[in-house]
Amino acid sequence: MSSSLRLGYVLEISFRLETYGLLIRSGKAREVLGLADIMPMAIEYPFVIDNRRYILSVPYIPGSSLKGRARALLETVLGLPLYTTDGKIYLHTRIVRNEIRDEDPYCPVDNVFGTPAIPPNMVAEEKRFILDCWAPTRAIFRDLFPSDEYLRRLCDAKGGCEGVQLADFLEEKWENRIDRVTSTAEPRNIMRLRPGVEFKGHISFLIYDLDVCRKPVCDEKSQRRELIVGKYKGVPALYYLDMLIDSLKLVERTYLGASGTRGYGTVKFKGITARLYDVGGNLVNEISVEDLDKFKEAALRLPLECRK
Question: NCBIfam families this protein is in (predicted)?
């Protein structure tokens, strides 16, 4: 990592995620008598509705699920090489078994979503430039929980929040697997989220000094320099943010969670607010848009200044 690394800005991105038949599997279902074969993830979580505090059992979306799906789709679209360390999971990463495989300092997947660390003394001399261009993961994905607006509507429909249960978020879906030879049916029972369940989400996007003030050594070693200088006004942070938004748009166009090719997991990002703060906590700029397309347009106009 660069020995003179400084954090310059933090972009706080909030959004609502509308879901349609989402299924992110829980391993608990078969351990509880009477539950379905497959159940969504759920947790006890505190909410404040109309100035009253409630502890409700609700479904949630792990931040790792959204982050992993967005990362995988972006890797595929960019055509990046994939590696494995265990023979099971393939993904793109800058470091494989303490060896630098991707030498481009401006790789958006490595910089936005993160890459394993490497001890500086294990970096070959001809690749030590990467340490001057290195910074921690930019995008921090938080877990997603039902939005206050959705819960308020549910509480009103139930005559009060005390009556809200996990079952109010779910629907039962039966599936059949058919034996091609005997035509025997093997039914199973799946509980998934009802269409229309809305979540609130948050991503913190860290912007370091080298993401705004480019270093000559990073420019020299990157195949993306001309793209960043031409389209992104010479600011790598705008490139990284644009790639993050593109990865979320890819999730919208495909699916999130399990069984996406069988009708599950359609999602829609809505009500996006992004607030740019300097390291002193002062608000520098604010974006409020309804969808990812408008967010993509507005994000390129963020006033990021190189302060040396």
Answer: cas7_TM1809
For the beta carbon of residue 48, count every other beta carbon within 10 angstroms: 10
Q: Is 178 domain-assigned?
A: no
The answer as to whether 32 is a domain residue is no
Model confidence pLDDT, tens digit, residues 68-121:
999 999 999 999 999 988 888 899 988 888 888 888 999 999 999 999 887 887
How many domains does the chain contain in total? 1
CB contact at 8 A, 137 and 205: no
Q: Model's pTM, two decimal places?
A: 0.91
CA distance 227 to 131: 22
End-to-end, the C-alpha distance of the chain in Å comes to 18
**Which of left, alpha, beta for 250 (phi over 0: left; psi -120 to 50: alpha)?**
alpha
264: containing domain: 7-18+58-144+195-299
- Distance between alpha carbon 4 and the CA centroid of its chain, in Å? 28
In a domain, 52, yes or no: no
Q: Which runs of consecutive H residues, i.e. helices, occur in 102-160?
A: 108-113, 129-132, 148-158
Question: Per the domain annotation, does 294 fall within a domain?
Answer: yes
Question: What span, in angstroms and rounded, lies between the C-alpha atoms of 3 and 93?
Answer: 22
CA-nearest of 2, 10, 71, 8 to 206 is 10
